[in-house]
């Protein structure tokens, strides 16, 4: 009997499925949700706890939450990386959490935690996409 990922990989080539798109978007919006879509609950829980932990630590260290409207290319790249946090980034921006600038060394580390959490979430969403497409076997 074929596993679920093998069944996904054996689909008719012309057949379109919304599962990969759903896994990618859900995984980006909510950390770990893409792995829930492809029925990997333990991996989803580990990703959720890890990314949420990085987010909370980053904010507790008064990390900078970047905006796109600056002239610095580094700030724009940091904004894109933090945008990878999905809904968490939207909540932080909407609630006014995080520092507007890094005022001390700890705040700089906090900003790096937020950036790393966003990049990890993007990697996790792409991993969920690969699982849903059948390109990766668990």
From TrEMBL:
Every DUF6677 domain range: 22-136
Entry superkingdom: Bacteria
Transmembrane segments: 21-38, 44-61, 73-92, 112-132
Record-linked InterPro entries: DUF6677
Signal peptide (UniProt feature, chain positions): none
Keywords for this protein: Membrane, Transmembrane, Transmembrane helix
Keyword Nucleotide-binding annotated: no
One Pfam entry name: DUF6677
The protein's name: DUF6677 family protein
Organism of derivation: Granulicella cerasi
């Amino acid at each position: 009997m074929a596993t679920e990922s093998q069944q996904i990989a054996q689909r008719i080539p012309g057949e379109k499925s919304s599962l990969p798109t759903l896994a990618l978007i859900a995984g980006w919006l909510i950390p770990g949700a893409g792995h829930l879509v492809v029925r990997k609950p333990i991996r989803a829980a580990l990703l959720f706890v890890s990314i949420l932990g990085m987010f909370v630590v980053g904010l507790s260290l008064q990390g900078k939450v970047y905006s796109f409207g600056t002239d610095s290319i580094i700030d724009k790249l940091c904004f894109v990386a933090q945008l990878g946090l999905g809904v968490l980034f939207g909540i932080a921006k909407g609630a006014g959490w995080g520092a507007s600038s890094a005022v001390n060394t700890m705040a700089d580390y906090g900003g790096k935690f937020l950036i790393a959490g966003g990049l990890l979430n993007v990697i996790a969403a792409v991993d969920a996409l690969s699982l849903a497409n059948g390109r990766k076997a668990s």
